[in-house]
Design a protein that fits this description.
11 helices; two-stranded antiparallel sheet; 46% helix
């Protein structure tokens, strides 16, 4: 049975000036950090907040990086991002020993209105929701592009990280736990190995490293958005943010928003949804000062950045599966989905249809 977190939350709140705890509820959607919706009362006024306890191993410089990004975007007033509340010492986070005696990092955010309508698994957005999501990503990129961040995110950029992902995949069969997950991985080994290697080669082209870099979200998916009707009221979870190629952030977002999960369509990139999301991104970019739309060079590489997004999720799946004592059936669901996309992407006709669509989305093609 999970221990009552109330004493721990009260101890954290004692370092803030936000009142007394009157209610707490665990956020069951989180898969990396431990978070709570909390309600406090101060001077007779009840207020809601979001408290995050960061995963074990999260480093101070990475939290500084994330928080400097959040505060910068909040100041821009262009994106619905929750502000951070300072401790009584004026810091945006708190480091306290947890029950096990190790240092735990906590932060308290504003509570954003709206509905947590989707997760990253099997999201099906309306056309307006998709367009709003594409436009918001462009606004976020514009706001983040002007920041000289504090701290540092340790994760390598995707062009270099693909080598690590490929090595992890190639060693996965030797780490087998003897479950159905491992049996499926071994059966699909060659397909995924070929898929990652092909995108590695494509993204080693000299021009790729010259594509625009900026602070990216790196986890922009429907589960990290809040909605009221079809309007987006919240953008959350910046702890995977880093400096990397803008086109990778867009490609990863397209993988999350536009790849089907259901039945025979599992792994299929929905090209109509892709068009709606990207057209909105390009249109919003034209309206943002200092943020040009995706260039022809970025669009040309975008299919491989979408596949790099697929490899990125494989990377998370393998690390989680091998380092946690989770349900193999859950991780098998994720692996089957990524394999299904790798199979879709492996077909030349599908890549051609995708490229034909992307070629229409460069502003010059519509002149």
């Amino acid at each position: 049975m999970r221990a009552d977190p109330t004493p721990e939350i009260k101890e954290v709140l004692s370092h803030y000036d936000l009142g007394e705890l009157v209610r707490q509820q665990r956020d069951q959607r989180g898969t990396v950090n431990t978070s709570y919706f909390i309600e406090t009362v101060k001077n007779g006024e009840r207020r809601k907040f979001f408290l995050r306890k960061y995963k074990r191993g999260m480093r101070r410089e990475e939290v500084l990086f994330e928080h400097s990004l959040i505060e910068h975007v909040v100041r821009s007033r262009t994106c619905p991002v929750a502000g951070l509340h300072p401790t009584q010492e004026g810091q945006t986070f708190l480091i306290e020993p947890d029950r096990d005696g190790e240092g735990a990092i906590y932060a308290i955010f504003d509570f954003l209105p709206g509905e947590d309508r989707f997760t990253w698994i099997d999201p099906r957005l309306s056309r307006r929701e998709l367009r709003n999501a594409g436009a918001l990503l462009a606004r976020f990129h514009c706001a983040a592009a002007s920041l000289a961040s504090q701290g540092r995110r340790a994760e390598a950029k995707i062009v270099d990280l693909l080598g690590t992902i490929h090595s992890l995949w190639r060693g996965a069969r030797e780490r087998s736990k003897g479950t159905e997950f491992d049996a499926y991985l071994a059966d699909q080994y060659d397909l995924v190995d070929r898929s990652i290697a092909g995108t590695q080669r494509a993204l080693k082209e000299p021009g790729v490293r010259r594509l625009p870099e900026m602070l990216i979200h790196s986890d922009y998916h429907p589960g990290n958005l809040k909605f009221e009707r079809e309007e987006i009221t919240g953008l959350v979870d910046f702890d995977w943010s880093k400096v990397d190629l803008r086109a990778f952030d867009v490609g990863l977002a397209l993988w999350y928003f536009c790849v089907s999960w259901e039945g025979a369509a599992n792994g299929r990139l929905r090209l109509t949804d892709t068009n709606d999301f990207l057209a909105a991104y390009q249109q919003q970019s034209l309206a943002e000062p200092g943020l040009p739309p995706l260039s022809f060079a970025e669009l040309r590489c975008l299919p491989h950045f979408i596949n790099a997004g697929n490899a990125y999720v494989i990377y998370w799946t393998l690390r989680d599966y091998f380092h946690k004592d989770g349900d193999p059936k859950e991780y098998l669901l994720y692996l089957k989905h990524t394999v299904a996309f790798a199979r879709w992407f492996d077909r030349r006709a599908n890549r051609k249809r995708l490229w034909d669509l992307l070629a229409t989305l460069h502003p010059a093609s519509r002149a």
